[in-house]
User: What shape does this take?
Amino acid sequence: MAGTVIVTRRLPAPVEERMRQLFDVRLNTADVPMTQAELVNAMRTARVLVPTITDRIDAAVLAQAGPDLGLVANFGNGVDHIDLNAAAARRIAVTNTPGVLTEDTADMTMAMILALRRRIPEGVKVMEEGRFHGWSPTWMMGHRVSGRRIGIVGLGRIGAAVARRARAFGMSVHYHAPRPAAASVVEPLEATYWASLDQMLANMDIVSIHCPQTPATYHLLSARRLALMRPEAVLVNIARGDIVDEAALIERLAAGLLGGAALDVYTRVPAVDSRLQALAREGKALLLPHMGSATVEGRIDMGEKVIINIRTFLDGHRPPDLVLAHHAGVHRKLT
Ligand code: 8YV
Assistant: This one.
């Protein structure tokens, strides 16, 4: 099939192989992000660009796109690294990979909650370092997870998958979203809707973030809102770093005003704030290196979604996973 497809990062081998069979494709064999100059160069020549979260496709980059570029087929769900308005203005379509990473991300959310509350990383370290000197009644006591109230911020696909798991673990499910979810979603979960995020935060044991990052959700968990959380409550963020005011979160954790945080995403990557590492060493934070959707199966499924989007586009049809700026809640340009 004709058309130059440029892929910015190494993808799982079966995905790269399939792309080679199907498209006139230029793969990036170096497993490091492209420089901005390389990215701009790719934008000039490609018909289809396949970026990942490590590529910043802002208005300045899009302004340099060649006349042939018609599709940015993102390898991933979140598109906060792409200026959707600028793409739309240049009639460049943007697609993502919804659905296929839902269950893996929800599994990881539960793993993070359990690991933080039951002190799993500390326990693993004790064994690795040969510091287990025998059981005692007060040894490694964590906190019970069942019977707790979980407040889910954003009851989309991933939020609902987390809610199903939380129910199975005996938690009561609460959620905040711009509007109540459909009865078919909410009823089986017996989920309680909180129109006010402030009020939900003040009443939860666990708060888990599952909304996209948009200008509207930037620092949604602001210093003021973090201060509403109960001092023994924990925060889980597997969505995007800037949905939380990370500096304010660090202050509250360090001051013992929050029960803990489990994070898979950060404001700065890869140079994560070193104060978070110190908090992790004290057992107040559990930190993961953005691996929420990282399963072999999930990444291959994501690649398959990207391929379907590219094929339909190159065939002259509307790709199935189009992301529209107004649907994604993007009302102003990336800053
Ligand atoms: C992806 C993610 O691995 O899909 C997302 O939004 O956050 C990750 O799980 C990443 O975006 C790949 O580009």
About this structure: Residues 52-53, 75-78, 101, 292-293 surround 2-keto-D-gluconic acid (CB under 6 Å). Residues 102-287 form a domain with the Rossmann fold fold (CATH 3.40.50.720). Residues 331-335 have pLDDT under 50 and may be disordered. Residues 102 and 158 are 5 Å apart (CA to CA).
